[in-house]
Amino acid sequence: MDDSDDQRKHGLSRRGLLKRAGLGAAAATLLDRIGMLQQTFADELRADTRQAGSPIDDSPLDGAPFSGLHLAYSLDPSVTYLNHASIGTIPRAIQRSHARYLELCEQNPWLYMWGGAWEGPRESIRAKAAHFLGCTAEDVTFSHNTTETFNLLAQGLPLGPGDEVLVPNLNHSGASVCFELQAERRGYTVRRFDLGWDDATDVNRTLERYAEAVGARTRLLVLPHVDNTVGLRHPVAAVAQEARRRGVEFIAIDAAQTVGMIPIDVSALGVDAYATSPHKWLQAPKGLGLSYLGSALREALQPMWMTWGQQRWQGSARRFEDYGTRNLAAVLALGDALDFHGRLDPAARVAHHRRLHAHAYARTQEIPRLAWRSPADFDQGGALYAIDVDGQPARSLAQALFTEHGIVTRGFEHPGWHAIRLSPNLANTTADLDRFFDAVRGSGEPS
Ligand SMILES: Cc1ncc(COP(=O)(O)O)c(C=O)c1O
Predict the structure, then answer these.
(1) Which residues are CB-contacts of 43 (< 8 A; sequence separation ≥ 6)?
(2) In which residue ranges of the chain is CATH 3.90.1150.10 found?
């Protein structure tokens, strides 16, 4: 049986699949296992979080702190993990379900990877992701990460001589470098404008800066929703509206730092692309990306990966996925990560982040050698914030915090601007933040 035989099977009903594959009861059992594994995940998640004393259960949260939730993760007890904006952590229940999907796959790799058995589950997870983002399943594509989606745009959008791609200085390299490196070959230009490090914490000033920066040749505007440095919540809907008014055709958002952190309704943002890396805040396996690609952009975009799915998925965002062998077990585990979030009351999740933000802000004000470099108002920022420690070089300070205290943060250094970024997630508590503040309270290096 060659690949094209397999591909024709994609999308068949379970019965049709079995019949075409000439499989009997044993295969039926293998196919049914996915539902059983999903149920096992749900049961384990409930058991883990109950044991941890966390309120994740059948009933939504009521605003209580997520106390004890760290027990539902595998973090080393000697580590205070405050760097989810770089690399997220996954609850044990999701780790185990991911491992079970991998194990099931090895019972009959062809059936799961090419035989179509996981076609239905993959599509139901696409629908689940669409619901989470506020779009339709047709708009959702599974990339490998945020960087890949911006590479897709840099290679596939009809940009050429005379066109300009505009990015703010707070744009992450994963959403910038691909344009810079393609520009010369394709004949377009990339212009980076300065939001200013301090201005960037003022959302109104930021909107003005975007409006001023858009030029007559700007065809694509790329910006972060919450940037990874100061954690400003860029006013995406207002920026998009203003940019369109000024003639910008495409607007692409780097959402690596929002999905799973704050509620998202992509349909209300008026943008063409919205790309995230679900390992950060959604707590899904690493190496899997999730993006919204709007219909107007889809029509204009050339795929980066070209193989059999091009005709079949014409018109849908699925056309822009890599059709080689994929890690479908990770996609299934993304479904479990979405279910994990589905069990949280979104308002309670925001309340948790708001509480940690307020605590970190208050402690920063108490300690004279610290300066807060992020929005003071959580609703203009997010669950990541930058703190200047006496103007000290931040990378060596972050290293010392880790080696001397087991505190994992991220140091940023820009001309005249140094900061340690804290990015706590659901399992963190104010006590974790206090460990950081106690370590940097003294003078000189952390003690
Ligand atoms: C804002 C932002 N965009 C893009 C990326 C790149 O993510 P990935 O390596 O998963 O593509 C990151 C990673 O930290 C980020 O913070």
Answers:
(1) none
(2) 346-440
Q: What is the model's pTM?
A: 0.90
Measured from the CA of 279, which atom of ligand 1 is nearest?
10
Tell me, in angstroms, the distance from the centre of ligand 1 to residue 76's CA: 24
Ligand 1, pocket-test mutation among 87, 147, 281, most atoms within 8 A of CB: 147
From atom 6 of ligand 1, which residue's Cα is the shortest distance away? 174
Residue 46 tokens, joined:
């409930």
**Beta-ladder partners of 140:** 292
Q: What is the DSSP string of 321-389?
A: S--S---HHHHHHHHHHHHHHHTS-HHHHHHHHHHHHHHHHHHHHHSTTEEE-S-SSGGGS-S-EEEEE
List, for residues 383-440, the tens digit of each pLDDT value. Answer: 999 999 998 899 999 999 999 999 999 999 987 789 999 999 988 989 999 999 999 9
Q: What single string gives the DSSP state of each residue in 49-85?
A: HHHTT---SSSPP-S---TTGGGGS---TT-EE-BTT
Q: Residues near ligand 1 with C-beta < 6 Å?
A: 85-86, 145-147, 172, 174-175, 224, 228, 254, 256-257, 277
CATH topology of domain 132-339: Aspartate Aminotransferase; domain 2 (3.40.640)
- Tokens representing residue 51 in the block: 């044991």
**Per residue in 361-382, pLDDT tens?**
999 999 999 999 999 999 999 9
Question: Which listed CATH number (3.40.50.300, 3.90.1150.10, 3.40.190.10, 2.40.128.110) goes with 346-440?
Answer: 3.90.1150.10
Query: Is residue 101 a contact partner of residue 37, using CB atoms and an 8 Å limit?
Result: yes
